[in-house]
């Protein structure tokens, strides 16, 4: 004999779910017995599927190239040359995931391409900045954020006090952060800014990371870089990210360095301001 | 290092340059050993190496240091603290004999506790390499390690949880929301432990005070921890912050720990400082350590050893300082060290076994990142296996999604699943509290109350009514999008 209320769907709801106004954490999911209700289970699977796809979807070279061409037409500061299509020594995604060392190095064909590029550029003066777009762990992050961020950065740079001469933009497949050092060196750039897809989170599959290096050359460690993380509309939005990036670029240029000795003081207000240690649990 | 090891079979002789190389070649396959270039070059070589390793006398590990004694304070700790009396019952055994001995009916919980101080991390690592998953579970399940602060961890038929209420900006109400969610799902008896988004002394102090006030207000028999650098916590203690547990990530070589910015003396100072606060009620284990295979290699401090052997050596560091909790964060480091669900599961069982054999209160962050070849089903498998093996504690996080660290670990629901299918309870102090607070109607049976417990409903009623928000909109969008 089954004894249950009419219309019972098997789920005990949690009234504290409304506390989601305070956090993006998956609180108040409710339960079937002690297990995840069907709807919540399937939502999780979808989020995981999107994060997995972000890792394994290839970089859309043609699409981004087209967008960058259009952007260069609008933003005279950007180098009008076509983006350079480069590849790391990691031949495919499976190799990339298991061999971080290979993802940090340019393939021989890409090195040759950059050397030719450098020979064609008759100006002996180094570029002020090389922008490098690398898929990293999320091509989705590049697709959603890279071009929009560069648009904001280019317009911010155009109205800054310095004159900036930019190298052609590089588009790198199977790249890790340090590959920017190789590229910056070969292009003869004073600074490199790498735009790279960050490790995707379940609730943030498209987060873009920015890594800046002054005087890039092969063999530098993370201690020489400055990082701006979580660039996406729901995180650090594009205009804010561009403002921070321009601050660091200008400071690196002024101080002729980057990394641990270049402090980001673009925000002098704390991340959040609230009572010492208060919360509703203590109310 | 020392002498070469040879093994002859069918007219062919295999040679391994030293004990470290033999250990590495005998290790079940994983990506981090491939990355380090120490992995067996064929499946046959691995099987042969395991046969050769099985013939190595345990005594050799006392004479052939895998990392030179002169260069490494952890080697010195292992050798100097070795107890020959505890070692006596197993001193005549080879690695292969040791496996048989551990599985034998002679090796009871009491006997295993007796030999603990005679077992070095390298002996534990070596025998684990020739044990199947079921062997690792069976022996670990016989090892009993009990620690205490305000709750007791590690009693038979118990599984504790760390409540991990992380928030990407350390927002106090955001953290409190995840804490409440966890407490109402019966989570948090091992520790309430926050990974701070902003890692400095002021922020750590703020978080410590907040957790301390919640623990006191609701009289929760648990302890808090902010997972900040040990030197930050020392400073917090000097400034009078309410520190329950001192946290530190540790590795198995001196060079790894130098790259983490501490040494053994730092940990000794921290343990003494935390003990001086006398904040424990049922015990005085004041340290919380985290480990994980691959940390030595990622610090380029692995001395040519395989990652599991380095990991086991970290347990020598841990056991010197009487921790309340040790946690192997098994799938966090990424697929370049543990590639897929199979490798993560194997590593989790190895770490738990080695730590328990050496006498540590081992828990496991059963977890994966989105670039690893793993999913929730792999975590279900590892959680079930570890809970069967008597794992001391697992993590608890809302819906498995850590929105600060961007990885997936076990949820509050997952722990209740494990408790139910295996008949496990939380720590006895916490079990009583859950029933007193009417969070559970039967904590031993993992039966939650269908109604909101009165002590918490008043906190919720005090909140301003919430209409809509960006977060709940996002959740809705996800559902329909």
Automatic annotation (TrEMBL), chain A:
Q: What is its main location?
A: other
Example GO biological process term?
A: ethanolamine catabolic process
Q: Name one GO cellular component term.
A: ethanolamine degradation polyhedral organelle
**Any Pfam family hit:** EutC
Q: According to the UniProt entry, where is the signal peptide?
A: none
Q: How is the cofactor bound?
A: Binds between the large and small subunits.
- Cofactors that this protein relies on: adenosylcob(III)alamin
Reading the lineage from the top rank, the first entry is: Bacteria
> Which keywords belong to this entry?
Bacterial microcompartment, Cobalamin, Cobalt, Lyase
Q: Which GO terms describe its molecular function?
A: cobalamin binding; ethanolamine ammonia-lyase activity
User: What InterPro entries does this protein map onto?
Assistant: EutC, EutC_C, EutC_N
Reactions that this protein is recorded to catalyse = ethanolamine = acetaldehyde + NH4(+)
Annotated segments matching region Disordered: 261-283
Q: Where in the cell is it found?
A: Bacterial microcompartment
Binding, adenosylcob(III)alamin: 177, 198, 227
Q: What family does the entry list?
A: Belongs to the EutC family.
HAMAP family recorded: EutC
Role, per record:
Catalyzes the deamination of various vicinal amino-alcohols to oxo compounds. Allows this organism to utilize ethanolamine as the sole source of nitrogen and carbon in the presence of external vitamin B12.
Summary of subunit composition and partner proteins: The basic unit is a heterodimer which dimerizes to form tetramers. The heterotetramers trimerize; 6 large subunits form a core ring with 6 small subunits projecting outwards.
- Full protein name: Ethanolamine ammonia-lyase small subunit
Which organism encodes this protein?
Parathalassolituus penaei
Protein encoded by which gene: eutC
Automatic annotation (TrEMBL), chain B:
Molecular function in Gene Ontology: cobalamin binding; ethanolamine ammonia-lyase activity
Q: Which residues bind substrate?
A: 162-164, 195, 290, 365
What is the cofactor note? Answer: Binds between the large and small subunits.
Q: Which UniProt keywords apply?
A: Bacterial microcompartment, Cobalamin, Cobalt, Lyase
Q: What is this protein called?
A: Ethanolamine ammonia-lyase large subunit
Q: Tell me the function of this protein.
A: Catalyzes the deamination of various vicinal amino-alcohols to oxo compounds. Allows this organism to utilize ethanolamine as the sole source of nitrogen and carbon in the presence of vitamin B12.
The UniProt family comment states:
Belongs to the EutB family.
The GO biological-process annotations, alphabetized, read as: amino acid metabolic process; ethanolamine catabolic process
- Organism listed in the record: Parathalassolituus penaei
Domain of life of the source: Bacteria
The pathway noted for it is:
Amine and polyamine degradation; ethanolamine degradation
User: HAMAP family annotated for this entry?
Assistant: EutB
Record bears the keyword Lyase: yes
């Amino acid at each position: 004999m089954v004894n249950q209320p009419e219309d019972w769907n098997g789920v005990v709801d949690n009234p504290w779910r409304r506390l989601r106004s305070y956090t993006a954490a998956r609180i108040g999911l409710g339960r079937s017995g002690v297990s995840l209700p069907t709807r919540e289970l399937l939502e999780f699977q979808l989020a995981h599927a999107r994060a997995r796809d972000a890792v394994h979807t290839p970089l859309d070279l043609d699409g981004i190239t087209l967008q960058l061409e259009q952007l260069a037409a609008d933003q005279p500061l950007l180098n009008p040359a076509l983006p350079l299509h480069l590849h790391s020594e990691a031949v495919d995604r499976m190799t990339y995931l298991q061999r971080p060392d290979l993802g940090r190095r340019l393939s021989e064909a890409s090195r040759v391409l950059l050397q030719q590029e450098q020979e064609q550029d008759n100006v002996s003066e180094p570029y002020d900045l090389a922008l490098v777009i690398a898929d990293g762990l999320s091509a989705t992050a590049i697709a959603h954020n890279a071009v929009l961020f560069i648009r904001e950065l280019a317009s911010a740079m155009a109205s800054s006090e310095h004159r900036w001469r930019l190298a052609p933009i590089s588009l790198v497949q199977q790249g890790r952060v340090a590959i920017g050092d190789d590229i910056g060196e070969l292009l003869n750039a004073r600074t490199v800014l790498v735009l790279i897809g960050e490790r995707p989170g379940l609730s943030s599959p498209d987060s873009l990371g920015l890594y800046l290096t002054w005087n890039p050359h092969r063999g530098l460690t993370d201690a020489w870089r400055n990082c701006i993380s979580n660039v996406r509309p729901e995180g650090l939005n594009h205009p804010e990210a561009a403002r921070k990036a321009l601050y660091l670029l200008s400071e690196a240029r002024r101080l002729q360095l980057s990394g641990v000795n270049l402090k980001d003081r673009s925000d002098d207000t704390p991340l959040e301001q609230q009572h010492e240690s208060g919360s509703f649990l203590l109310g | 290092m020392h002498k070469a090891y040879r093994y002859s079979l069918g007219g062919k002789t295999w040679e391994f340059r030293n004990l470290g190389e033999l250990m590495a070649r005998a290790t079940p396959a994983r990506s981090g050993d491939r990355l380090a270039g120490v992995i067996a070059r064929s499946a046959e070589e691995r099987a042969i190496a395991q046969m050769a390793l099985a013939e190595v006398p345990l005594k050799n590990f006392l004479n052939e240091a895998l990392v030179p004694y002169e260069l490494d304070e952890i080697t010195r700790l292992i050798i100097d603290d070795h107890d020959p009396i505890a070692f006596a019952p197993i001193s005549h055994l080879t690695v292969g004999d040791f496996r048989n001995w551990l599985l034998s009916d002679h090796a009871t919980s009491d006997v295993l506790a007796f030999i603990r101080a005679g077992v070095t991390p390298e002996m534990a690592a070596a025998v684990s390499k020739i044990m199947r998953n079921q062997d690792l579970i069976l022996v670990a399940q016989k090892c009993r390690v009990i620690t205490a602060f305000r709750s007791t961890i590690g009693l038979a038929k118990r599984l504790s949880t760390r409540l991990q209420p992380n928030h990407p900006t350390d927002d106090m109400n955001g953290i409190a929301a995840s804490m409440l969610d966890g407490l109402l799902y019966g989570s948090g008896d091992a520790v309430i432990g926050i990974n701070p988004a902003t890692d400095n002394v002021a922020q750590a102090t703020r978080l410590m005070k907040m957790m301390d006030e919640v623990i006191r207000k609701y009289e929760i028999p648990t302890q808090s921890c902010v997972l900040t650098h040990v030197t930050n916590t020392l400073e917090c203690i000097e400034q009078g912050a309410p520190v329950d547990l001192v946290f530190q990530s540790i590795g198995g070589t001196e060079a790894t720990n130098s790259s983490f910015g501490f040494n053994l003396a730092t940990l000794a100072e921290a343990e003494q400082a935390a003990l001086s606060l006398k904040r424990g009620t049922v015990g005085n284990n004041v340290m919380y350590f985290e480990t994980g295979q691959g940390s030595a290699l990622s610090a380029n401090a692995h001395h040519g050893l395989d990652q599991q052997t380095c990991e086991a050596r970290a347990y020598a560091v841990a056991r010197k300082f009487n921790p309340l909790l040790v946690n192997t964060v098994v799938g966090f480091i990424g697929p370049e060290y543990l590639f897929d669900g199979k490798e993560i599961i194997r590593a989790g069982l190895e770490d738990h076994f080695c730590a328990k054999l050496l006498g540590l209160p081992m828990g496991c962050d059963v977890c994966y990142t989105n670039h690893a070849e793993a999913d929730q089903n792999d975590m279900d498998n590892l959680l079930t296996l570890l809970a069967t093996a008597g794992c001391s504690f697992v993590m608890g996080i809302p819906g498995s999604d850590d929105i600060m660290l961007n990885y997936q670990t076990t949820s509050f629901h997952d722990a209740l699943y494990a408790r139910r299918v295996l008949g496990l309870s939380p720590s006895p102090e916490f079990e009583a509290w859950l029933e007193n607070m009417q969070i559970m109607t039967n904590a031993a049976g993992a039966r939650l109350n269908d109604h909101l417990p009165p002590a918490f409903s008043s906190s919720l009623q005090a909140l301003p009514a919430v209409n809509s928000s960006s977060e709940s909109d996002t959740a809705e969008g996800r559902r329909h999008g």
